[in-house]
Task: inverse folding
């Protein structure tokens, strides 16, 4: 297997750096991916092939954060135009727009898709009730710098956030109070809750750290050869991927921290990386304006990757480049 060459699918269409991405769960129509880009136009794609489905039109500034709900019928985006928007992911129609007083960096849905949380450069976290969009949002304050990421946590009874004040914080949704905090020597760049909810993955400086999601005790931490912008843990927690400023995507053994492989495909720093819900691929978004889809198991027949039986391992068919209209 060692001489298998990774052939990523390249998803074109964005005109500026791609800074964030998210996947839906696996639905009856496979699964879907949404991307955030500084061109202000979030895009929806088929998750396993990268095929472009549509573009959400309406923001008047760079989009910094995106989310898809589990069923892939709602998308959300946060942008430099000081709004967080909710979209019908099937029709592309803008459903709701929530005004903020600064750049919205992060958006995420609750499990039942009735609530939206946002994190902004106002240093505030908000929760909007999507069934009562006119109602004032719940506000959580305590961070002392702009918020990078916020998401629902522990079966939606809590929130977890990280910010440019070098902290990760857990908030009780009922009391709106901070209940736990982890301080880092550098700002945390990415935050992910594992698919089973048990592990938090945080990238900061040139490290990837994993925390128990109940106690926030550090399970393990590994060093990557480059400043890390993003990291993602495989759904079965066997491996993780990381990416950053050296244009590479790295794959590591979660138990040992040993590097399994690394690939170069992007032409600019890699800002975001995430495993698909079935764990068969991971997607990366870059300063170069593209998303790339990488096979978790190189050479496996999956999606557009067709592995030819009996062919030389390096001759596995090259997938087509996926274009956006």
Result:
């Amino acid at each position: 297997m060692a001489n298998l060459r990774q052939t990523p699918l390249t998803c074109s269409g964005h005109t500026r750096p791609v800074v964030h991405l998210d996947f839906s769960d696996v639905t009856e129509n496979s699964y879907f991916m949404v991307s955030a880009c500084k061109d202000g136009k979030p895009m929806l794609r088929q998750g396993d092939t990268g095929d472009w489905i549509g573009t959400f039109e309406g923001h008047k500034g760079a989009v910094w954060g995106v989310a898809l709900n589990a069923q892939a019928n709602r998308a959300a985006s946060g942008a430099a135009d000081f709004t967080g928007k909710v979209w019908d992911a099937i029709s592309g129609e803008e459903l709701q727009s929530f005004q903020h007083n600064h750049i919205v960096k992060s958006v995420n849905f609750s499990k039942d898709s009735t609530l939206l949380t946002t994190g902004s450069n106002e240093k505030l976290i908000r929760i909007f009730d999507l069934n009562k969009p006119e109602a004032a949002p719940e506000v959580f304050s305590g961070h002392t710098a702009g918020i990078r990421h916020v998401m629902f946590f522990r079966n939606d009874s809590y929130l977890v956030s990280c910010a440019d004040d070098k902290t990760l914080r857990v908030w009780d949704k009922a009391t709106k109070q901070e209940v736990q905090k982890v301080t880092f020597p550098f700002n945390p760049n990415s935050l992910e809750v594992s698919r089973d909810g048990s592990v938090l993955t945080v990238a900061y400086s040139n490290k990837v750290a994993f925390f128990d999601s109940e106690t926030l005790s550090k399970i393990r931490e590994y060093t990557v050869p480059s400043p890390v912008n993003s990291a993602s843990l495989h759904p079965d927690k066997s491996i993780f991927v990381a990416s950053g400023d050296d244009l590479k995507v790295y794959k590591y053994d979660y138990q040992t921290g040993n590097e399994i492989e690394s690939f170069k495909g992007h032409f600019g720093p890699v800002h975001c990386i995430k495993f698909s819900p079935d764990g068969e691929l991971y997607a990366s978004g870059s300063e170069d304006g593209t998303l790339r889809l990488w096979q978790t198991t190189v050479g496996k027949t999956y999606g557009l990757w067709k592995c030819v039986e009996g062919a030389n391992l390096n001759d596995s068919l090259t997938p087509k480049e996926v274009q956006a209209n």
